[in-house]
Amino acid sequence: MKISASAITDVGRKREHNEDNYYSCPEHFLFAVADGMGGAAAGEVASALVAETIGITLPAALMSAEKPDELTDENLERLLAASIEKANFRIQEDIRRSPEKAGMGSTCVLMALREGKVHMAHVGDSRIYRLRNNVLTQLTEDHSWVNESLRNGLITAEEAVNHRFKNVITRAVGTKETVQVETQTKFSLPGDVYMMCSDGLMAGKVADSTIEEVLRKNFNDVNASARELINLANQGGGPDNITIIVIRVDETVTDPAFSPETPQVTRGSGKKAVLLALTGLLLLTAVGLVLFKILTFSPPPTPSMDEFADLTSEKNLMVSGKSIPSSSVEILVNGASATSIQTSSDGSWKAQIPLTADGQFSISARTVDASGNTSPESPVRIISRDTIPPAIESMKIHSPANNIVTGTDSLELSGSTEPNTTVQVMLDDISLKPLTVDEKGFFKGLVEIRGLGDGEHNIRIRPMDKAGNIPADFMVIPFEYDTEAPPLPDFITPSGDTVNTTSLTVRVKAREAGKVEIQLDSNPFKDAELEREDVFKMELFGLQEGREHTLRARSHDKAGNKSPGERVVTFTVYTTRPPAPKVDSPTQGGITRSPLKIMGTASPGSRITLLVDGKQAAMIPTTGEKITWEAEIQGIADGNHVLKAQSEYHGAISLFSDPITFTLDSIAPPIPVPNGGRSLLVSESPFKLSGTCEANARVFITNAAPGSKTFETQCSSSSEFQFGPVSLEEGKNKFYLRSEDMAGNSSAESIIMIVTLDTVPPAPPVLEKMKDFYLKTPVLLSGHADTDSTIIFLVKLDTGKDVRFETTVSHNGQLDPVSQNFPMGKHTLIYWAADEAGNESTRKTLPLKIIERLPATPYFPDMGKTVFLDSSGKARISGRSGPGDLISLSCGNTGSTSCQADDGGRFQLDMTLPIGQIKIEAFASLIDDPAIRSEKSTLELTVRMAESGRTSGNSADPAENSMLNGSSSWHVPRPSGEVDINSASAAEIATALDIPPAVAASIVAIRTKNGSFTGTSQTLDVPEMTNFYQSVRSYMKVSSTQKSTPSAENGQSLQNRIVRAPVINPGDSISSTIKATAGKTISSLYRFRPAGRGIYKFIFNGKGLKFEILTTNPITPEHITTVGKTGSSQMGTWDTSASSTLMPEAILIKITASTDNSGEVPFEIKTTYTSIGTGDGF
């Protein structure tokens, strides 16, 4: 077979180092490409191991076949796969030696050409292509996620091109313990071109069509093909390493029966025929010579070859044997002549042969005699060279464990490593007999350690394969050799010669012990349990009352050495407890001082242990024959403590006494503090002294006068004390005051206290004259009294409650004025004076009347100038006053007539009147207090008899009279539109305002009588007025008084409209706009409903707008206030607190846009309200 081959690898444009490797051996027709992965140079290591392993194993394996027919397709594929599997094993071994390389691996494509066939094996996404008859075919299938998903129909070919998993491979050499290799065999023909490549070619965007074109174009130059493909990949970005091998089959031997193309033999003529004839003649001559030589001469004998090992790690092999004397022996390695050696006189020979690399070598020899005749080859002997040592990491130790402590004569050494090797063993620096590893990889043996000195030692082991390879390092097993006996253990419990229980926890302290055994009496020794470091315990049960028991303990250290002898202790069981001692002092909850004195009783002969706060504070020796005991303990801190006592009798321990909680207090109490200070002024004798001191302390007071005794009292738990009564002399009295706490500590010193007795009362105060009643305003009280006295006021409310307050008197005898609010009602004011000693003057009493409002002076807005008497001589009089007020009317000598106004302040009654010009006087009074009256008002009327067919009324005008009858109870509905009352008909007015037709007719009649409605406002708030007639009449009257000079805006007469104005309540805030027109004056109207008497404030924001407040007074729509003319912030105030007239039901807020405004002008109105006397606002 004849081939042409070229192999090139390139790092590419983006990578820093090349992780690709290849193997190219044209003389053996073997080629491979490996693409490493793993980073940190590990990928380069993996691909190098693949290439190196193939170069070591495959050529030797192919040459070792004894017969050519042994190399079947199946066997050749198996050899290729085995070489890749060997590479997988070597990568795994390298990872075990260097764990930081974990994850490294490689792809591999491997190709072997053999007599008309190509055998292939591959793992991963490196590829083999074939160009035959100018057609390119990919012979390998990528082991990648994208390719397998494409084959299974999971993704399309278009998706595969740029898929994010296109670089993910599903198989690799070295990443797992085993590897799956795909193999195949195909026929090979002369002219076939094979191209092997790593995926860097595809990453460089070189398409299959481009590969076909390059191989076809450079068919006669494989090196040019390889170089051009490398350049194309780099031109495509060169993102990965690129490796290319191009092989062209120039000549092969093929079985014609299987060859698709049998070469045709072309016959020649002329010179070619002559040449063929001469060639044939020469061949016949050569054949004759050979036959002559065969018939004339016989070959020398085959040399013998001595046995040698079939495995070695050496670089050279010494071969020896026997042949005929004075001949030459040719040594053949792998079928090729390696060296020749001259035999000695006895025919023996010896030669050294180099073994160039790891792998398998076939060794044979043949004799060449002096005539040049060659003997047949000796039988081939196979030797393998292996220089790779077993991995130390492959060793696993089963025993002994690291750092054991032992005192035995030997240690068992066992574990596992590579099968069929041996294990070198060293004890410290001494070599021991190696151990043999079986075919399963296990080894086991004893290491003699007897005679070692006590201390730390090491067993060192490492594997050695049959070739004698050993790793550089040993595996070390440290241990400690210890033959020294441990010390005897010591008993912790029981600690005495008696115990008080039949169940006992035995504790021993054993240093350097690995195990402790304890024996009770004659029972067998048992292992104790390790409780903590150096302490072992054992639970004993069923101990006998009153019997003496014996315990023995011995220890074993971790090396197995026993302590010398045993530790022995004896004890007797007493389980009957003595009674608990009794503590008599301190008492439960008691307080005492330092030093702490404790007393109590116990059984005679007992030993008492005292615990304060759980800690032993004292131990009292046995009491002998006494039953009482006492102790004094120093150093106990102040505070709360708990005391318990316990007695011991013959080793039996009582229960603790009931805990005594006590307080230790060694701090002197503070000096008592009398209420009112150390200097008191009192008005009575005897007097009671009170104050504060330490809780529960005793307080002592002693009169400084000769012969006086000391008084004692107990301070309460709330730190208060009181003495009394204590007799005093008029004037100054001197006392000493001290305290003593419950622990017996006395205050540091006594204090001197002066008590002055004053029994003369002050004069009663004189108040300024008070009013008969007060109108829901603060009542101001003032006057004069004795200096330095206190004036006390007590107001007894009519609700049954009392209000008490005080004021002082200045140095000039004047009371400091006091202002106080009271609820409405009839109350009683009691007042008196008190001096500093507590003496009080006589008490004085005054009535105190508080009213919510004054009655409103009656007025008569509904009355005309004339009234008509009905048949009984009465005329209806109507008017307004305050809500619920009692109205009194009188006319000359006709007597007085009364009625009550309704909740709206309206009233009416039929009154007997004389005919003619009369004057009616009226006043209002509060219904619940008639003495409080309003000012009088006067109504002048002309009284006539009613004409025939006419009912009583107050006007001669039929149109007006139709509105008077029952008009005060009308409710006018909310209008639904706007109407010009100067020109509209009665029907239009009734429809627009949704009012009765009769009322609309009355409006037209009034308009006809008085002229047009020309007033001061463009809009009129009709629906919210209770008396519709009043509104119309008031504007009508204004119109009649201004008829000669009607008001105008911008030269135009006002067009009077009746519209529904929006309602604003106290506390509301509104934001709106007014649509202004340049050159015109435009107004908007709002209704404001007052909540009662008080102060109303209006804050208006509207640039360039005018803000006015108008009343709906039935006489005239007067201006309450006009706020600004222009500007962005204005304020107006309406004060009704001082007004005695009837509050209107609504006032009008008028907002006007001047001629300078145009478009939508925004504005904002905020309202606040403060009621009379309460200060409340909205």
TrEMBL record:
InterPro entries: Big_13, Ig-like_fold, PP2C, PPM-type-like_dom_sf, PPM-type_phosphatase-like_dom, RuvA_2-like. Pfam families: Big_13, HHH_3, PP2C_2. The keyword Lyase does not apply. Residues 4-249 form the PPM-type phosphatase domain. The chain crosses the membrane at residues 273-295. Keywords: Membrane, Transmembrane, Transmembrane helix. The keyword Membrane applies. Residues 948-972 are annotated as: Disordered. One of its GO terms (molecular function) is protein serine/threonine phosphatase activity. This is PPM-type phosphatase domain-containing protein. It comes from Candidatus Wallbacteria bacterium HGW-Wallbacteria-1.
